[in-house]
């Protein structure tokens, strides 16, 4: 092989190696760009989810359930006296030092003890004593096993009322979907003066 041919062969090998190196670098660059683009998509998705989720919490916290009435009461005021509450059933205010054990009651319960349970984050479903049995059974199914109260209540102006601290909803039927929405929003909700405080170990009606 002549020197010229040897030089040409060497040049061809160098060019081939250079092309391979360029191709490898191009492939590496594409992979890096692809990974960066994927990361951007993931981050953007996470940011969007966080914003949407936060907006969902804001909507829930703002109280969008139709018909809910709100009242302003400070927590922590105990009294041994019977209280003349402004709302029927009551949704806040002074209350007994002992809270009512959460659960299902087939007779009226003391307002002062039930209000203390509301202060701890319970929801209290009350119904007119003559409400149909199948409606009462439905309410029993809806009552949470924890931080939930159910009891009859005389002299209400609606068949069913559901209360949380400072919030109340009156409905005509146990089939009303707003009952479940109310429980989800206000049971141990942000309005609770003493979230996490016990709803057991108190008094029974």
Describe this structure in words.
The protein is of the alpha/beta class. The protein folds into two domains: 62 residues; 117 residues, no CATH class. Helices cover 43% and strands 12% of the residues. It contains four helices and six strands. It has a six-stranded mixed sheet with strand order 1-6-5-3-4-2, with helices on both faces. It is elongated and about 105 Å long. The termini are far apart.
Record keyword descriptors for this entry.
205 residues, alpha/beta, 2 domains, six-stranded mixed sheet, 6 strands, 43% helix, 12% strand, elongated
Order of strands, main sheet, comes to 1-6-5-3-4-2
Report the average pLDDT across residues.
Answer: 83
Shape: elongated
SS element count, helices:
4
Largest sheet: 6 strands, mixed
Q: How many beta-strand segments?
A: 6
The CA-CA distance between the termini, in Å, is: 110 Å
Overall number of structural domains: 2
Topology:
Blueprint: H1 3-62, E1 69-70, E2 103-104, H2 111-119, E3 123-127, H3 133-142, E4 148-152, E5 160-164, E6 167-171, H4 178-186
Parallel strand pairs: 2-4, 3-4
Antiparallel strand pairs: 1-6, 3-5, 5-6
Describe, in short, the structure shown.
The protein has 205 residues and is an alpha/beta fold.
């Amino acid at each position: 092989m002549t020197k010229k041919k040897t030089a040409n062969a060497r040049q061809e090998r160098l060019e081939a190696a250079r092309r391979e190196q360029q191709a490898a670098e191009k492939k590496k660059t594409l992979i890096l760009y692809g990974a960066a683009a994927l990361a951007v998509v993931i981050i953007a998705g996470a940011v969007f989810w966080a914003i949407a989720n936060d907006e969902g919490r804001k909507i829930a916290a703002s109280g969008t359930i139709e018909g809910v009435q709100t009242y302003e009461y400070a927590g922590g005021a105990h009294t041994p006296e019977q209280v003349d509450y402004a709302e029927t059933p009551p949704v806040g205010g002074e209350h007994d030092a002992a809270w009512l054990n959460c659960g299902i009651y087939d007779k009226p319960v003391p307002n002062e003890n039930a209000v203390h349970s509301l202060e701890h984050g319970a929801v209290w479903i009350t119904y007119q004593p003559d409400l149909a049995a199948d409606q009462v059974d439905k309410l029993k199914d809806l009552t949470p096993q924890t931080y939930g109260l159910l009891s009859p209540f005389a002299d209400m102006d609606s068949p069913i009322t559901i209360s949380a601290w400072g919030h109340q909803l009156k409905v005509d039927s146990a089939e009303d979907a707003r009952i479940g929405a109310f429980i989800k929003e206000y049971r141990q909700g942000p309005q609770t003066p003493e979230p996490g405080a016990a709803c057991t170990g108190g008094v029974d009606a």
